[in-house]
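Researcher: I'm preparing a figure for a lab meeting and need a structural model of a single chain. I don't have an experimental structure, so a prediction will have to do for now. The sequence is pasted below. Please return the structure as C-alpha cells so I can convert it later.
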Amino acid sequence: MAAASVCLLVSGCVDDHGRGDMHEAVSECFSKYPFAKGTAYKQFNCIYQAHAHYGPVAMGAQYSLRLQVDLASLKVGQDVDSGILTPEEGKTTLHWVTDKAYTQASQQQAWMAAQPKRN
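Model: Understood. Here is the structure written out cell by cell.
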C-alpha cells in the first residue's frame, strides 16, 4: 500500500524518458526495505535518494511537491521505526499526505489555468 501511494503521487516513477531507471531504483527500495518497524525510514530514505539522484527532469513538473512528500514520508518512516505509529497508522498517514498533496497541486493548477494570459 505504501508503495502504491508514493508511486501514485510520483508519476515520475515512469517519467524518466522511457528508460525506467528511476522506476527501477525506487522498486529496488521497496524490495530491499519492507514497510515495517525498523526498515520504514530506510525505505523512504532510499526513495528520496533515488528521486534526488534522477532529479527534476525525471520527476517532471511537480518535482518540488514530490520532494515535499518524500520528506513527509521520511518523518512517517521515523515514526513507524520508533513505534510512535504502527505500520498500519503509517500507511494511513501516507495516504493522507499524498491525497492532500494531490488536492493542493490540482487546486494550484486550476487556479493558474484560470488566470488571464499576460503578454
